[in-house]
Amino acid sequence: MLGAESNHGASTVRAVSAHASSSAGPPTTQVGDGISAPTGVWTFGGDTPSGFEGHVARSIPAYHECHDLILDLAEELVPAGGRCYDLGCSTGALTARLAERLAPRGVEIVAVDREPGMIEMAAERLARHPSVRFVTSPLESLTLEPADLAVCFYTLQFTTPRQRPSILSSLHQALAPHGALILFEKVLASTARGQRVTEGVYFEHKRRQGFSNDEIVEKGRSLRGILQPLPAEQNRTLLQVAGFTEVLHVFRWMCFDGVVAYA
């Protein structure tokens, strides 16, 4: 994922380097799947990459089904010989499936994440996919090349709201005039009552996935100020201001929202 920590600059990565040894840090709390987070501060670095894939699949409703949907959309939206960005590729689960689906068309996949540990795992996973290129960069300072599709799967929400207009503007410039952005975000309800109901339903979903009450509470605490969702209506306004001409709603589960925005 992008946007959780500061990691300035961008570098293209093809080889897998050894994981850096971790040093003693502040007291940590357990948030599930063997992942620990410093109290009050979630990070996608540290020990998170090793347990991330299982953790996120349990945390996000319809996670695998949304990957299936994105693959079908990508097949419709990316022409032969085109370019597709996977922004916030983490360990490369979706990247690998995009490469398998689009490689026969000669499509280049550019997988981007700000965390070197995530990129290392993704590069190892996709070592046999020459159509995939890896870039280590924060989303807010990424230099984008012209592209036909950008996939932003629960990534923009980890940048600050102040950064999002310029990020979306840059994406629109790279995708125009015929490309598209697939944007999935956690969103806020439009009313206080709706937010209360949404939070309660999502809490029960996570309990059914095997998270303990303590893990759910500590994960939420660690994400304060890190994950900053907006109402879905505000996200659509940001897309329109950035220049996207049409927004197609493709997914919704309580506070999880997915759209296709056409440049």
Describe this structure in words.
The protein has helices spanning 48-59, 63-77, 93-102, 116-125, 164-175, 192-208, 213-222, 232-242, and strands spanning 11-13, 28-32, 35-38, 83-87, 108-113, 132-136, 149-153, 180-188, 230-231, 246-253, 256-262. With 263 residues, the chain is an alpha/beta fold. It has a domain at 63-188 and 226-262: Vaccinia Virus protein VP39 (Rossmann fold). The strands form two sheets. Strands 1, 4, 5, 6, 7, 8, 9, 10 and 11 form a nine-stranded mixed sheet that branches. Strands 2-3 form a two-stranded antiparallel sheet. The radius of gyration is 18 Å and the shape is globular. Residues 3-23 have low confidence and may be disordered.
For this entry, give a set of tags.
single chain; 263 residues; alpha/beta; Rossmann fold; nine-stranded mixed sheet; two-stranded antiparallel sheet; 8 helices; 37% helix; disordered N terminus
What is the CATH architecture term of the domain at 63-188 and 226-262? 3-Layer(aba) Sandwich
The count of DSSP E runs of length 2 or more, i.e. the number of strands, is 11
Q: What do we call the CATH topology of the domain at 63-188 and 226-262? A: Rossmann fold
For the sheet with most strands, the description reads: 9 strands, mixed
The total count of helices amounts to: 8
How far is it from the N-terminal to the C-terminal residue, by CA?
A: 23 Å
